Amino acid sequence: MGAVTIKNLTIGDGGLVVMAGPCSIENRDQLIEIAREVKNSGAVILRGGAFKPRTSPYSFQGLGEEGLKYMKEAGEIAGMLTVSEVMDSSDIELVASYVDILQIGSRNMDNFALLKKAGQSGHPVLLKRGYMSTIEEFLLASEYLLKEGNRRVILCERGIRTFEKFTRNSLDLTSVPIIKKMSDLPIIVDPSHGTGRADAILPMSKASLVVGADGLMIEVHPNPKKALSDGQQTLDYPAFREMMDELKHLHSFLHNRSYSEAPAQMKAV
Amino acid sequence: MGAVTIKNLTIGDGGLVVMAGPCSIENRDQLIEIAREVKNSGAVILRGGAFKPRTSPYSFQGLGEEGLKYMKEAGEIAGMLTVSEVMDSSDIELVASYVDILQIGSRNMDNFALLKKAGQSGHPVLLKRGYMSTIEEFLLASEYLLKEGNRRVILCERGIRTFEKFTRNSLDLTSVPIIKKMSDLPIIVDPSHGTGRADAILPMSKASLVVGADGLMIEVHPNPKKALSDGQQTLDYPAFREMMDELKHLHSFLHNRSYSEAPAQMKAV
Amino acid sequence: MGAVTIKNLTIGDGGLVVMAGPCSIENRDQLIEIAREVKNSGAVILRGGAFKPRTSPYSFQGLGEEGLKYMKEAGEIAGMLTVSEVMDSSDIELVASYVDILQIGSRNMDNFALLKKAGQSGHPVLLKRGYMSTIEEFLLASEYLLKEGNRRVILCERGIRTFEKFTRNSLDLTSVPIIKKMSDLPIIVDPSHGTGRADAILPMSKASLVVGADGLMIEVHPNPKKALSDGQQTLDYPAFREMMDELKHLHSFLHNRSYSEAPAQMKAV
Amino acid sequence: MGAVTIKNLTIGDGGLVVMAGPCSIENRDQLIEIAREVKNSGAVILRGGAFKPRTSPYSFQGLGEEGLKYMKEAGEIAGMLTVSEVMDSSDIELVASYVDILQIGSRNMDNFALLKKAGQSGHPVLLKRGYMSTIEEFLLASEYLLKEGNRRVILCERGIRTFEKFTRNSLDLTSVPIIKKMSDLPIIVDPSHGTGRADAILPMSKASLVVGADGLMIEVHPNPKKALSDGQQTLDYPAFREMMDELKHLHSFLHNRSYSEAPAQMKAV
Q: How distant, in Å, are the alpha carbons of B218, C57, D53, D56 from that of D226?
């Protein structure tokens, strides 16, 4: 069985695991507020970028270590696990000293040096599919982690680059059932990056559950229009809360159980 | 309201409309058998190709008019509407004399002469998205039909060509909620072509309902391994029946009603 | 040997065959002027669209048969062969009654009904690669023409759809040497559509000759900024003349002969 | 003027700079033999992979530092500059202690941490275009290097991922004249990776010169069928020699000078 346990949270055991938070960590107070909000709505892992991979060197690059400190504090206050991206093999221990899960981003899925060292580190890893990677390449990238003995690997489908222009990427949901047949690693879906559109997050999140995803990663911000990055694919608090309600309802239908029976995402962490 | 009514069937009113049948019409008796089977499982429209667009001129090209005669007979016997592809503007009236809905296939979405004449014909049209077409181009293609005054147009998402190799196409389900915002035409999904894999049809069909699709088009054959075309993306009878059961269950959850309340797909046609 | 002879012009025998003219035929006098200009610069075939495949039904659709009449007249006055697109199988004889070569456009490469009837017609055909077609599919499309006994087929590479945004298409020049190994049909290149940029036409035209193309198709207009379609990928007269000079110089280098030795493109037609 | 000078070699001044060598460094004696061979044919920079980015962790990963030692020795013996890939920011100084130019490979074009540190290092960098990157993203990646004050940056077009299957990638030669307009950095072309086919290397190399490339990177091996990686896109010695002869002939035509006039690639290094 491929479920991954991190502290007291298990991912891949049939529960609905939602990771939520801002694209970029912007400041301490805002992050704590967001953490409380998304926790109240049912999210169990706080996401937030401190080291940001930006196409242009002239774009905001993230708060770096300062941001990681805020992550640690916000996670503790809200009672959530935390995940943040590591972009450089030399930063692995730094990032891991503040957050529970190392994210390897889409642009670094082919960064085999980073994969190897993240595998050796033993820290839980969230591996995002490269936006230009086939499913086969995605699974082989996960092998770089597994080969080093690190079994706490969570996959994340986040859309691929195609010719379509109304969406930032084309979310390839068919990858989920295919990967479920070929690998026993948990897989979650990121419809924020996968579509680039706030109005597509809810339907594509529901579709993700239906095709068998073990969880979701969602960008949430108190005021998406003022977010320092990715505002157009970010939910505000009320939209996130509504979405979580719909997802719980659907999840309980899919798993034939009611949410009063202590669902996974309600476990204390 | 953009629902389309053809004879006594309405598509786009919240009911679950499933089109099913073989990729290619192979012979009369088999087609009648398939029609009865898929009708019993809940399909309301019989699909089957008589004129087949094949990449190679040396592949089986379909039975032509003979196949259309079988479609008409099988549809009448089973009590189903029928849909079949027209590939040439000069065949529009021929095809329309046998079947209820003209299909314009993915490879002909850019065949503007065919679109114009199909629009002028006034016959109901199922327009498939070009496998290399953007959503915008897809909607503009539908405008070729609408501009001629033909309002009975049903759209069909069927996957786009990408670099991914484990699937025949990448099913772009995000197109469904986007198109729902931009057009009031009904839209169905074809997960058979959209994935090219029998094992992906069930999960992607369920996901299609969840994102708002008005129906599905599914390839069904008594013995997919022996089908003259597309066997690897075709369900056999038991798999189709099981799928329909799951879809009805999900549809009734999504629409908050039970299937004892005379659901759309049970309407006599 | 796969050279194609149309009237007194041979394509595919080592000569440089340039087809030039406006994207859309706009009016009689302008077309005659363009024909004389491009003939003077060394083009031997006049191109011009009368039936235009446009993404939107609300865009200019071409002059239709009236435009074809102008083509015939302009070709006769300038002493050039003519090529124009046919979009519908029922128009084949109409178009062929005015022009020497039927063009089957990129959007119709998969229109197998049109291919079959164009093959049966026996008229010379210029077959453009589908913008979403593999080389294998392109060659199989040409088989639809050849299978009907029509050997006068000229292929045209015109770029494929990719994720790149600085160009309208990605011109796939590697297809030329590959097709040269697999087929003996002549192949020309259309850098106007293949790049969508006037500033890329000259370098990509030269590259086309170097990789073995038998000719080129170039959009020329007296005032590209005012052209009814595709102005951004169209050369004006001086740019076309300069380009032709460079191409002749390069062609004579590649073929080790001087242009005083009656090169192909100087043959009277 | 954007020419880059490394030791006594200038790239981007109109000379023909060819980088050649094996995909992977396999052993010392073979590398020295290859270096002498390609130098004799006119190459001036020896390429060879010591750290290999492989899709699967179970494929040959390269000789690592041992391979770099062989590079240094082979370059000195043959009188060539050397280039080899660095995959991890922590290896920059190690690689730079052995070779003259750091290669940042296609899979790491989005590895912004590596780009920043390579920029800070001040060592000459050969930056390959990501196989799924737009031209704009490619130029922005080069900005990561330039922003740190490192001006010795050479770009390399190496093909993009498309749906085409007869080639490993689609070599996007149109990028060369476009980049020449937007940047003054030298740009070379890698037709080995760009096509994945030995039979396409010669025509696409010639086309690269014609569109304005400042050089080429070519995979050469004494016995391509036995190469540890990429044999199908590798030239043997006679094919490389012939190619170099053709390229010199074409280059001297393009630059209106004869090769007796001390061409760039004959400069001692």
A: 47, 56, 19, 19
Proportion of chain C above pLDDT 70, given as a percent:
95
Which chain B positions have a beta carbon within 8 Å of C118's beta carbon? none
Contact D107 A107 (CB under 8 A): no
Asked if C57 has any chain B CB less than 8 Å from its own CB, the reply is: yes
Q: Decide if B110 touches C, using CB distance below 8 A.
A: yes
Secondary structure class of A83 (helix, strand, coil): strand
The string of pLDDT tens digits covering residues D66-111 is 999 999 999 999 999 999 999 999 999 999 999 999 999 999 999 9
Tell me if C140 and B112 make a contact (CB, 8 A cut-off): no
**pTM metric for this prediction:** 0.94
Over the stretch B165-196, which tens digit does the pLDDT of each residue have? 999 999 999 999 999 999 999 999 999 999 99
Q: Which two tokens stand for residue D197?
A: 């086919």
Contact (CB<8Å) D161/B163 = yes
Average pLDDT score, chain A:
94
Task: Dump strand ranges (E) for D68-197.
Answer: 81-85, 101-104, 125-128, 153-157, 187-189
Chains with 3 or more CB pairs under 8 A to chain D? A, B, C
D161 CA: distance to closest CA in chain B (Å): 7
Tokens, residue D227: 């190469």
d(CA A48, CA C126): 55
CB–CB contact C170 D160 (8 Å)? yes
Tokens for D67, please give them: 């391979």
What ipTM was assigned to the predicted interfaces of this complex? 0.93
Number of A/B CB contacts below 8 angstroms equals 114
Classified as helix, coil or strand, B240 is helix
Domains and CATH numbers, chain B: 4-266 (3.20.20.70)
| DSSP code string of B102-155 | EEE-GGGTT-HHHHHHHHHH---EEEEPPTT--HHHHHHHHHHHHTTT---EEE
Give the amino acid at B35. Answer: A
Place of tokens 């199989």: C140
